[in-house]
Amino acid sequence: MRSIESISAIGVSQEIENTTQSELAIISSAGPKQETKAGQAKEALLKQMDIKVYDYIAQHVIPERESVRVMDIYKIDQLDNRATERARSLINIHQINDVKYINKFLKRVNANLPDAGLFIGCIETVQIRKRKLFANGRNIFKSLYWFFCFIFHRVMPKIRYVQKVYFGITKGKFRWLTMAEMLGRLVSCGFEIIEYKEIEGKLYFVVMKTHEPTNNQKPSFGPLFAMNRIGKNGKLIKVYKLRTMHPYSEFLQDFVVKLNGYNEVGKPANDFRLADWGRLYRKYWLDEIPQFINVLKGELAIVGVRPLSQTRFNELPEDVRQKRIRFKPGCIPPYVALNMPDSEQNIEAERIYMAAKEKAPFLTDVKYFIMAVYNILTGKIKSS
Helices H, strands E: what count in the chain? Predict the structure, then answer.
């Protein structure tokens, strides 16, 4: 992954023109007196802003412009259409961690912006909190405190019924959010990521409204995660795995690929969506165990071509795409048996496997299974 200090995912820029302090105005249809008060409030918010934060925001919009509304809010009802009807960009200096219903809030922001409108906000990520806590070293008390807070602020809000207790105690404030979850929520709510940067202990993001919020795809929260994959005859199937990524990571697949490309085994490189426990699962292939559910359902074979996402499938050579949908995907892909993990090599491994399977289906699968088990047990190939 590129440095978190400044990551530009797409080439989006806005014209930035010189402006004067006299341009301060309220984004409202109210009268002159109300406009003056709101303008003064806006000016006060800008004066509170850290100079580094202001400079970062000013790279994308001029905060003083009439078409830019600056807010310090965390409740949905504070976002009314009348106050934002003339705004092309919204800046919220209040961290999203304190918003009770985050997705509803983001959808309201989406609804209040025109197409290509910008939204700039911030969060304190779990990673930043952890770095602050252990900045001066670890001890048993800090570790116990971290564990308790993780269960309370990170796990409880994700569990049905239990989350009611959590919100009753916290009123929705102080939620723990990872960078991947926040960015994924933004994409699911109709935004495209332009840039994000850590400044003074908070992660600031700049996103653009590009589409309506997604309502037909539910985010993953539980330990078992169903991924949409291309099956035999091009049929879309759900392949089960133990979740190794942060919630809402599925909405960031295209973004991560555009950002960093693929690694040597054909998976997104430097993938910040991967959780710490996920690395352990993947190292020992534990995340693959639930795929036996797909085997019992007849959707996967023990050995076969990799079940790929639509994004990765579309990037394959035409001849491979046409041929591989004739075969049932498998839990153990050919590159494991042939020890060809490289992004290009694993495509060639599938070509070799499919050619052999056409001649001797059963014997080919037995041979590749034995070879794969040997490579795994001897450490010749490792899970990514």
Answer: 16, 10
Give backbone dihedrals phi and psi of 310, rounded to 5 degrees, phi first: -60, -40
The single residue listed with the structure tokens 């006299």 is: 22
CB-based contact 339:380 (threshold 8 Å): yes
Distances (CA, A) of 180 to 19, 86, 295, 313: 35, 31, 31, 23
Q: What is the pLDDT of residues 261-291, one digit of tens each?
A: 877 666 788 889 998 888 888 888 888 899 9
Q: Using CB atoms within 10 A of its CB, is residue 341 exposed (0-12), middle (13-18) or buried (19+)? A: buried
Q: pTM here?
A: 0.77
Q: What is the pLDDT of residues 352-364, one digit of tens each?
A: 999 999 999 999 9
- Burial environment of residue 343 by CB neighbours within 10 A (0 to 12, 13 to 18, 19 or more): middle
Q: CB of 188 within 8 A of CB of 217? A: yes
Indicate the residue type of 371. M
